[in-house]
Design a protein that fits this description.
Order of helices and strands: HHEEHHHHHHEHHEHEEEHHEHHEHEEHE
Strand content: 15-25%
Structural class: alpha+beta
CATH architecture of the largest domain: Orthogonal Bundle
Helix content: 40-55%
Number of strands: 12
Radius of gyration: 25 Å
CATH class of the largest domain: Mainly Alpha
CATH superfamily of the largest domain: Porin chaperone SurA, peptide-binding domain
Amino acid sequence: MMLCSARLRKIIQSLFICGTFLLTAFASAQDVPKANTTSDSKIRNIDGVAAVVNTGYVTRKDIDDRIAALKKQGAKLPDDGSLRKAILERLIIEKIQLQNAEQEGVIVSNKELDKIIADIAAKNKLSYAEFKEKVIASGSTFDRYKQLLRDDIILSRYREREVEGKIKISDAEVDNFIAERTRATSGGGAPRSAPAAKGELEEIDVAQIFIPADAGVSSQAEAKKQADKLLREARGDADFLQLGAMAAKDNPKIKFQELGYRTPERLPQLFYEAIRNTGSGQVANAVVKSPAGFHVLKVLDRRAVVSSSSQQTSSTPQEAVSNIPQNIMITQTLARHILLRNRAGLTDQDAERRLAGYRDQVRAKTADFGELAKKYSEDGSASNGGNLGWMGPGDLVPEFEQAMNRLQIGEVSNPVKTEFGWHLIQVLERREAQLTVEKQRQFAKAAIREKKFEQAYQDWLRELRDTATVKILNADDAATSAPR
């Protein structure tokens, strides 16, 4: 298995994950009739419509099924009324995307869908017929499973086409990213540009620590409390990014990053409003709340936007030479792992307990890590004893990389959770290697694209929602309850 953080590889991997998730997620759901005049009327009368979305609708039973899926996955759910509203909003967005995708001709043929299901079955070490029987045994119908999987694939393809395909990355952005990364790794010794004069276009270098929060009141309150604490600490003498790294070590869900120099229109509007009057080296006055959670912001620098021609004439020959990209040294790590994938019938607690048992055996020298990986790991590296090869910064998903970087050579980690499942990691060796200019540019483009995608995706979702005709009727009651 490749653990690369590039978005394309994530999406390819998600096809397997979503297939097995759908098998579990809708096990408790009753089969929904196909959309025609008779069944539409039946659904409206029995289930009740929660919201009308353009020419379609979302039923109260749709919300019930999604909640049942989350419960079956062992998710911790809020006990207030916010959950149903949050799920309804997600279902509305999905419905809009499916409607638009249909209009744009985004389809998955029956032949292609059968091949995808066959691949999912094979990865679960089942034949197509055996996998079909497992779906039916879970309480759904195979036709319903196929439709849900088809919808999920269409959503992924439509999102990628509408967002990913329209992201443009200039050479100047790549150069700026590499320069900023070099400055950060060298201790920030590079000189800063002059601040913008009044009315002059400027670029702002912002860093953030992000604390995610679920929809529930208790989760929101806890995340806000943690964000306020980090804000207080950031106002002291603590290095902001180091503070973020420490917080992420305690709670892997917390993310921290330097956004790099951006003009105001390239910053999220919420961010710019919060730091509009914040000077270089200062922390925003208050925590910023977004739909995803809470953000602690710091302005690392503000500078005037200088044209490339001006930079050329003002630079001395020595400065010009120093700005030429150079091969840089990086630390590569040779590691191996044991992976237990997210799948039906395996809870987080079970996976963590199993991996902890393997860890204890290796530490006690009663078992060999490589042999355990060959026997129990659930990815392509298993036959090679879990060996992932030499990996550099950015080659792995953040949760895995952070855990790996904390290990000494020969040390075995505690169980680590990522989007792929649960891992046990062992570091075999480390070395210094040269990162060529071309590799630097490839890494920079991938990182910039990832950042741009997230912002462009959220902007695209808001645009879809704003331009759709949506009427919410009743989201509060379950399908079995009488409407109020």
